[in-house]
Amino acid sequence: MVNQGMADTKTPLLRERKAAEHARVTYAELFFDLVFVFAVTQLSHAVLRHPDGPGLIHATVLLLAVWWSWIYTAWATNWLDPERGPVRLMLFVMMAAALVLAAAIPDAFGERGLAFAAGHVIIQVGRTAFFLWSAWRAPQHRRNFARILSWLVFAAVFWIAGAFVKGEARLLIWGLALGIEYLSAAVGFWTPGLGRTKSQEWKVEGGHMAERCALFTIIALGESIIVSGSTVMGMPWDLPVMAAFASAFLCSLAMWWIYFSSTAEAASKAIEEARDPGAIARVAYTYTHILPVAGIIVAAVGDEWVIHHPLGHADFKIAAAVIGGPFLFLLGTLLFKLAVFRRWSRSRITGLIALAALAPVALSLSPLALSALSTLVLVAVGAWESLTPRPAEKPPEHDGIKPGLKPEKTKKR
Questions:
Q1: In whole angstroms, what is the distance from residue 303 CA to residue 298 CA?
Q2: What are the residues whose beta carbons fall under 8 Å from the beta carbon of 369, sequence distance 6 or more?
Q3: pTM
C-alpha cells in the first residue's frame, strides 16, 4: 500500500502526517470500538452457556469472525482519516452492522445466523468498497483493495449461504468462509489478473496499529473485570468467594502488566523502523494478536465459574478455563514478541511450562487453589520481566541502522 503522505488533492480521505509524526487514534475509532465491548461480552456468555465441545467450536468461529472484522477496520483507519466526514460516516455505518453482529452472537448457530452473517459481510465488503472508492486515484491502494474486495466478496457467498442451512452444515460452510478470509492476507490477496500485494507495499504506521490493538486488549480486560464484578454481586461475600474474586482481579492485573510493561510500546517503534513493517504487522497484529484476546476471554469465563464454586474439586471445564486462559494469553504474547523482535522470551516460555505442569494435578485441587496458582504464574512472569534488565527491543534486521541508510564500510588496516 502507499505512503500516508500523498497529496490531499489526489486522495483527500487519506491521513496526512509527517515522517516523525504519530498517527493518533481518533475519538471516532474509540467510539467504534464500543460495539466490540458488547461483542466480547457476548462471546464470554456464549462460552458460559455452552461449555461443551460444540459450544467451544462455535464460540471460536464467532471470535475469529469478530476479530477479523475489527482488525481489518483497524488496518483501514491506519490509512483513512477518521476526522474526515465520509470516513467517520463509514465507521458509524460499520458500527451499526457490528451491533447487529454482536447481538446475534448468542443464536448465531440458530435462528439468527443470517443476521450474524449479514453483519459480518456488510462490515467486510462495505468498508473495503468504501476504501476502494475513497483512494481510487492512488494506484497502489486501488490495486490492493481491488484484490482484498475480490477475496471478501468470494467469502461473503459462503457466509450468506451458511446462514440458510443448519447444524454441522453451517459450521462447515462458515469455516470455509473464515478459511478464505484468513488465507487471503497470508497469500498477499493474490487475485487472477491483479496479481498479489507484496508486504513491502503495506506502509503501516506502527504507533497507530500498536495503540489500536492495545486498546482492544483493554476492552477484553475490561470485560473480564465486568464479568467478575457482576458475578460477585450475586454471591454471599464469604472468605472463599472474596478470595476467588481477588484472584480474578489479580489475574486481569497480571495480564495487563505483562502486555503493557514494555513490549507494546517497543513493538510500535520496532515496526515503524523495520525494513518490511507490513510483514511484521501482518503476523504480529493481524494473526497473532487474537491469541491473547482469546486467552483473556477464556480466563474471564474461568473466573466466573471459580467465584460461583470456589471450594470442592475442580471439574474438567473449570480446569480447562483457569489454566487454558492464561496459557493462551502467554502463548499469544510469546508469539507476538517473536514476530516483532525475532527473539524468544524465556520468562513467557517458563510461564507456559509452569501452567502446563498444573494440568496433571488440576482435578485434585479446588477451583480457588487452581485459580490462585495460575494467577501466581502470571504474576511471576510479570515480575520477572519488570525486574530483569532487558536487551534493546529491536529486530535483528535493524542492526542499529535506519531504513534506507547503508552501513559505512570499515577501513582495512
A1: 9
A2: none
A3: 0.87
